[in-house]
Q: What sequence folds into this?
């Protein structure tokens, strides 16, 4: 072998500084860190899937256009099938959008803090990323939107509603303002929209550069299947169809997604449970010396007032409760994010939270960092 292979075959210069997306998993009793559904899909869905899978012609390629799945999704949303594109998780949908409309020499705008994969995928496909800043309460100032759009002239601009990791729902007028400003293709990532009371789907129009992405990973209790989709104008969807790899959606996934849509009522019921639990959790946490960001999603971002975020995270982990530690991420000093679980899991979380906050075993009781929203606070991962 000649020398050290990574030196002989160097990675692309622009990828060298990227760190990748990390979501550490630890073996715990109560896992509330990745925003999945706490409940499995309905048994009747499992049975229907098993029955259809037993009849699959496995030696054949799947339907390349995923026709039946697209039709079922279109029908649910009251649009036509040529307004729907599906892929392996909404992450692959986002990647396909960015491969098609961003890429080398183009610019993508985000408003931070937000879902890290928007900027990450944009960079991987070779685009420049311009990061706008949210206010200290994580809301988005129209003046900042104007500054970013007028200075960067982005080809693609992301809004996430409800936003991850803050949980805030973006008002409809922000989407409208971005469109008025000419922010390129406006992508509203609605991975958590069913938990909120507003969706940008009602704003879609063949004459507007606006698209909305959704996932089966949360409401549909199907994070394991990896399925997401985007709804947008027909001219947009047909460009994505040119870019995506042939047969990218396997036959099992197409069936699983199509069958899931027969269980809308079961899923609505789960959403109601999670929303009710979210409100119960938020109310309990507000009574505990914690700053709670209002959430329209299936998770809550919070910041303890009397202990450090890292110390609290460790205290919860010591009690076998795992939440997401955002405390070292840029603009999120001392913040943690908890996914809403089953009532039992939420009770276990609240008990552990109370114990840690009122007990005397938190290693780091230093008061929260005053640079809470300082964008220069760099995340290690
Ligand atoms: N968008 C947002 C805002 C998310 O939080 C996530 C999942 N964490 C995704 C997209 C990706 O979802 P999927 O599982 O469909 O790839």
A:
């Amino acid at each position: 072998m000649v020398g050290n292979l990574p030196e002989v075959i160097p990675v692309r210069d622009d990828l060298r500084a990227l760190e990748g997306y990390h979501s550490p998993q630890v073996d715990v009793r109560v896992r509330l860190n990745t925003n999945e559904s706490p409940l499995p899909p309905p048994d009747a869905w499992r049975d229907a899937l098993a029955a259809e899978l037993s009849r699959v012609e496995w030696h054949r390629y799947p339907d390349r256009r995923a026709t039946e799945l697209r039709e079922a999704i279109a029908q649910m949303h009251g649009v036509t099938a040529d307004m729907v594109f599906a892929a392996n998780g909404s992450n692959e949908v986002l990647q396909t959008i960015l491969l098609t409309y961003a890429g080398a020499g183009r610019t993508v705008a985000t408003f931070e803090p937000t879902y890290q994969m928007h900027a990450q995928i944009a960079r991987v496909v070779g685009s420049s990323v311009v990061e706008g800043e949210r206010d200290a309460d994580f809301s988005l100032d129209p003046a900042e939107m104007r500054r970013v759009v007028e200075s960067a002239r982005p080809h693609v601009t992301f809004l996430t509603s409800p936003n991850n990791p803050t949980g805030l729902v973006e008002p409809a007028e922000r989407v409208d303002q971005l469109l008025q400003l000419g922010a390129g293709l406006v992508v509203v990532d609605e991975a958590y929209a069913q938990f909120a009371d507003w969706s940008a789907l009602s704003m879609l129009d063949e004459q507007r550069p606006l698209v909305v992405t959704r996932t089966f990973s949360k409401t549909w209790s199907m994070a394991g299947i990896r399925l997401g989709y985007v709804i947008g104008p027909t001219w947009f969807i047909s460009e994505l169809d040119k870019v995506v790899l042939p047969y990218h959606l396997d036959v099992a996934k197409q069936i699983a997604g199509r069958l899931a849509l027969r269980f809308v009522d079961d899923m609505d019921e789960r959403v109601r449970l999670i929303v009710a639990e979210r409100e119960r959790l938020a109310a309990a946490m507000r009574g505990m010396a914690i700053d709670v960001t209002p959430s329209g999603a299936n998770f809550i971002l919070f910041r303890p007032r009397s202990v450090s975020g890292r110390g609290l995270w460790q205290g919860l982990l010591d009690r076998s409760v795992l939440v997401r530690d955002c405390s070292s991420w840029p603009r999120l000093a001392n913040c943690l994010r908890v996914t809403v679980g089953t009532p039992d899991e939420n009770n276990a979380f609240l008990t552990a939270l109370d114990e840690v906050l009122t007990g005397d075993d938190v290693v780091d009781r230093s008061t929260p960092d005053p640079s809470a929203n300082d964008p220069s606070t760099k995340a290690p991962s």
In short: The radius of gyration is 21 Å. Residues 35, 89-91, 115, 160, 164, 189, 191, 215, 217, 223, 228 surround 4'-deoxy-4'-aminopyridoxal-5'-phosphate (CB under 6 Å).
